[in-house]
Structure formats: structure tokens, C-alpha cells
Amino acid sequence: MPSKKNMNPEIVVVGSVAVDTIKTPWEKRANILGGSASYACAAASFFAPVGMVGVVGTDFPRRYRKLYESFGIDLAGLQSLPGKTFRWTGVYEKNMDVRRTICTELNVFASFHPDLPPTYRRAPYLFLANIAPDLQLHVLSQIEKPRFVIADTMDLWINTAREPLKELIRHVDLLTLNESEAHHLTGKAGLVKAAVRLLGMGPRYVLIKKGEHGSALFSDDGVFLLPAFPLLDVKDPTGAGDTFAGGLIGWMAERNRTDEITLRNAMLYGSVVASFGVEDFSLDRLAKLTRKEIETRAAEFRRMLALRA
Amino acid sequence: MPSKKNMNPEIVVVGSVAVDTIKTPWEKRANILGGSASYACAAASFFAPVGMVGVVGTDFPRRYRKLYESFGIDLAGLQSLPGKTFRWTGVYEKNMDVRRTICTELNVFASFHPDLPPTYRRAPYLFLANIAPDLQLHVLSQIEKPRFVIADTMDLWINTAREPLKELIRHVDLLTLNESEAHHLTGKAGLVKAAVRLLGMGPRYVLIKKGEHGSALFSDDGVFLLPAFPLLDVKDPTGAGDTFAGGLIGWMAERNRTDEITLRNAMLYGSVVASFGVEDFSLDRLAKLTRKEIETRAAEFRRMLALRA
Questions:
Q1: Closest Cβ–Cβ partner in A189, A190, A222 for B304
Q2: What would the DSSP string read from start to end of B63-87?
Q3: What's residue A6's pLDDT?
Q4: pLDDT tens per residue across span B251-270
Q5: Lower Cβ count inside 10 Å, N or C end of chain B?
Q6: Mean pLDDT across chain B, nearest whole number?
């Protein structure tokens, strides 16, 4: 459990806070804590002080707030509005490789207007998780001197908010998205071609997530390829991408470096934290995770990638 | 073009020699040179003297034999029998990710009995490409002191020749197969679980090929993960797995080392040679390939995998 508290956040994460109901081929869990901000903040908290920007309803269970606090997550940016918390219900089919959304209730999320507390505005590291691009831009505009900004997105915004999304992409350091979204946004079929097109839209880095097949980082200087850590048992893959991004930006913030070699190693750490996260539902595994376990698995992962003795 | 000739082979490859007709979404080529032995021998020839064990019919074009010779491939083990050469017709659909076999004519391959010329029997490196397991065993039995034996297989033999296949697996150093075949052979769903089960069947190493998602090497000591070299244009993926294995065993033979670090680097070289091979149909790209191009791309690939400056 992380211990850094009572400091202004070095990392600000904006995203969803959700109450999820999830069904896998083996198990069903109702009303568990989810949302991109939950996963990303929990992952980042292992490395540096992190502040959450999000919204919950008055029904948001007190124990979930306590859980955030146990990670040392700063909640000054977590608004509470009259109404119900955002809810998502999803089902994983076959070998967990197909996910179907059964139901989405926006609830208080529909009127979310992310205004940052003053203590957040000097944070150098920013993760704009997958929400509407105009909200992502609004959060970005409140950060005084961002040092490294990561943005995630999804098909919905590519379809419904392409112009604000393109505006956002011009202002971020790293755009992260999955392979099909990269193809969708660029109209390009090959991974390399899509990434080159995305780099032309403004960001220094494009990070393409390929789930169990790892990730690829593209920049003008070249490509970095990272396989996924091989998993024995995946209990719930929900939030893996946000856990990855949270761990990544956390590790960068801890080092306070933004060069490419740091970023490559940050991807390795993000992947390691995500590999733990999927071992249980919600934040259950992350809540028990120690920095020592992270370091042990990171060292193991390095050995799996080594071309020298 | 490789230059090592007039030496006894250090590598022996047994596999198919085929006349292929291939249709991709963009192009069709009829009666081109194919077969696992063609791809594997061509790839291995860049690194060490290689001898081919295979069979052709009397219709086998003289220019294809000349092409083999231009790679420096020893053809003492290439039998010529009355009748037609093995023929395969295949179609690639969508983005080349679905392959359908339209037609297979075994022809002389049906009566193939691979007897090795005396000059082959002291070869230390052996690649048993995908043919019937009893033929693979028969070839293996003729090698006096094999130092490193790789075997490939396919679903057909898992279904129709499971017992000889299991006997073969007990006697090889490295078993290579694709992900779905690993699941099929072991009945295990996860990659790691399938690999562990396969290791229990005898080989020191299990190499699982995942195509555009790279490959994973399993041994009792751990796992090595290698992404695929990112490709801009794939013209014809036929033979990529055999080109990979041929380059791999070639690089090992050149070094004459069989330790795991050598094997990991050999996988990198196999992947590089395969990345060239798919840039054109048949052996067309490999016929123009130089060792310098291989080294340049290998260095580029290493930079794509580096976690240190």
C-alpha cells in the first residue's frame, strides 16, 4: 500500500468513477468500484502523489472513498453531485477476449464539469483518461505548466467528437489508443501507417495498446515494442488499459524524466501493474499489492525480454 | 547472396518442396516455388552451409533448382521421382489474416521416403519442418550426433498421428508450433499453461509462434518474449514460419552455440529474415537479400526492443 500523502499531487488524473457490474465466464460481481480514474489513480499511487478529478453521486459508497484514501489518492478533485454515480454493466465472453456492454447509465457523469482545485494546477504530469475530448481540453487548460500529458480516447469520440478530439491531440505529448481505434481514427490499415499518420496530428508519442499482445510506442525517432507480461489467470480484464497508463505516468513522475528511455521503462512498469490488476476484480488486487511485488515482477519481466546474459 | 558452398552441410532441413499458386487481395501468382524446405533452406543459407532433404517430380522446373543453387543450398538430399511435384493452392483474405487452402495435390510427396546422403549424417543442426512425424523421426534417426534439433508440426498431425508426434517431441530440443496448435495438442487454453504442458512432453524448449504478434520461447528456466518486426507491406506471408525457423537455426549453426541467450538472438535473426521474406512472393525477396541488409535490420530491431540507451 502506498504511503505518500498530504502533498500536492504531482500527477492529475481525470476520468470516470463508476459502479460496475461485471460478468465473466466464471463469475459475476455486482456494484463493484470501477471507472478509468479509479484504475489509473490506484496504479499511479504506487509511484508518486496523485489527485483524482471525477464525479460521484450521493449514493457513492463511503467504503470506496476510504479505499481511494488507503491508496493515498488526493480526492480534492472528486466532486459529489446530487444523483446516482455512473454505472456500467459488462459481460466477458469466450476466453475473456470479447467484451459486451450491457448497460451504461451516465447519471451524474452527464453533468460533469471538471474544475480543478488550486492544489492540482501546478501538477506536472497529467493523464486525461477516456472522457469527452472537450472535457479533456478543459482540464488541460487549467494546468499551469504541464510537463507531460497523456490522453486516451475511444471509438465513441472518434465518431461523435472528431474535431475536439483532433484539437486535443495537437496538445498532448502522448496519445494512447488501441489498434482498432488507431485504424478508425486514421483510416489506415497497417499499424505503422496508422501510427505515422497519428504522429502527424501533433503528439510526440503515439502508444498503441494491443492487449494480450503488448504495446508499441511510436515517435519520430522510431518504434519501441513491448510484449505483454504473460498471464496465468485473468479474473477480470476491466481497467487494464487505465492501470497500464496510470502505472506508466506514475513511474515517469517518480523519476521526473520524460525522455524516451524513461518512457520505455515506464511502459514496462505500467504493464507490470496492469498484470497484477487483472488478477482480481475491481481494485481488489491493487489494494493488496506492494512495491516489492512490483519490483520483483518488473525484474522478472526484464529477464523475459533480455537479449544478453 | 550467400557464398558458402562445397562443404558438408552443418544444417539439414527436411520439409516440403512445393509448386504454389497463391492469391492475395491484390495479386495472384501461379506455379511459384514454395514449400517449407525451400523457405527454411534459403533463410538458413545466409549463415551456414545447409542441405535440403525433400522430393520433387520430373516436372520440377530447372530454374528452381538453379535458384536453390544460387543460395548455395546442397541438393544431394533432394530426390527426384517420376510424377508431379507437390502442389498447393491458397488464398489470403481480408487483411491477409485469413488463409484458406483451395487445393493440395500430394503427387510425389505421397511416396516420399527421406533417406539422407552420407554427407548429411554428421550435420549437427537439424530442422524437421512440418511433415508427417514418422518421416521426421526417420530423418532424425539417420543423424549421427545431432547437437540441436528443431521440429515443427501442424493440426493435421495432432489429429491423425498423435502418437508418433509425441514420440518425436520426446527427442527434439525445440518444438515450434503456433498458438492454436499448442492449445489443440495440450487441451490447455492459456499460452503459459499450454507451454508448460508441452515442456513436460520432453523438449528443452517450446517456441510458440504468434505471427504478427511475435513469438515466445519457453524453457524450464523461464520465458523469452519477442515481438514481431513491424512490417509496412506484406505481399505474401506464405512460408514466414519456415523462414523464421531457417534463419534461427542458421544463426545458431554459424555461432555453433546452443545456450539460451544464443537461441534468443537467433530468434531475432529468424524474425528479421522472415520480415524480408514476406515482402515478396516465393523466394523473390530472399534471392536479392544481402547479409548487410540482415545486419542493418537486426540492429534496427534491437533498438526497437531496447530498455537502455
A1: A222
A2: HHHHHHHHTT-B-TTEEEESSPPPE
A3: 59
A4: 999 999 999 999 999 999 99
A5: C
A6: 95
Cell numbers placing A307:
537479449
Q: Give the residue ranges of chain A where pLDDT is below 50.
A: 1, 3-4
User: Chain A residues with CB-CB distance to B under 8 A?
Assistant: 95, 189-193, 210, 213-214, 216, 222-227, 230-233, 261, 264-265, 268, 300, 302-309
Asked if B305 lies within 8 A of A191 by C-beta distance, the reply is: no
Q: How far apart (Å, rounded) are the C-alpha atoms in residues B305 and B229?
A: 10
Cβ count near A130 (within 10 Å)? 22
Q: Does residue B170 surpass a pLDDT of 50?
A: yes
Which residue in the set A225, A231, A303 is minimally distant from B305, CB to CB?
A225
- Residues B19 and B54: their CA atoms lie apart, in Å, by 13
CB-nearest to A304 from B189, B225, B232 is B225
- Residue A41's pLDDT is what? 98
Would you call B305 and A305 a contact, using CB atoms and an 8 Å cutoff?
yes
> Which residues of chain B have a CB within 8 Å of the CB of A193?
232
Global pTM value: 0.94
How many Cβ contacts (< 8 angstroms) between chains A and B? Answer: 80
List pLDDT tens digits, range B211-220.
Answer: 889 999 999 9
Please state the three-class secondary structure of B250-275 as a single string. HHHHHHCCCCHHHHHHHHHHHHHHHH
Chain B residues contacting A, CB < 8 Å? 95, 189-193, 210, 213-214, 216, 222-227, 230-233, 261, 264-265, 268, 300, 302-309
- Tens digits of residue pLDDT in B108-163: 999 999 999 999 999 999 999 999 999 999 999 999 999 999 999 998 899 999 99
Using CA coordinates, name the residue in chain B closest to A196.
B232
Partners of residue A233 in chain B, C-beta under 8 Å: 190
pLDDT interval class at B95 (50, 70, 90): confident
Binary contact (B193, A232; C-beta < 8 A): yes
Per DSSP, the residues of B207-239 read: EEE-GGG-EEEEETTEEEEEPPPP-S--S--TT
Contact between B222 and A303 using a beta-carbon 8 Å cutoff: yes
In angstroms, what CA-CA distances link B248 with A13, A244, B191, B207, B260?
45, 33, 22, 11, 12
Min distance B308 CA to chain A CA atoms (Å): 6
Interface contact flag, B227 A225, Cβ < 8 Å = yes
Q: Are the beta carbons of A246 and A39 closer than 8 angstroms?
A: yes
Shortest distance, CA B28 to any CA of chain A (angstroms):
21
ipTM exceeding the 0.95 mark: no
- Determine the pLDDT at residue B211: 87
Strands B87-93 and B98-105: antiparallel
- pLDDT tier for residue B282 given thresholds of 50, 70 and 90: very high
- DSSP three-state, residue B105: strand
pLDDT in tens, B62-82: 999 999 999 999 999 999 999
Q: Which amino acid is at A209?
A: K
Burial class (CB in 10 A: 0-12, 13-18, 19+), A103: exposed
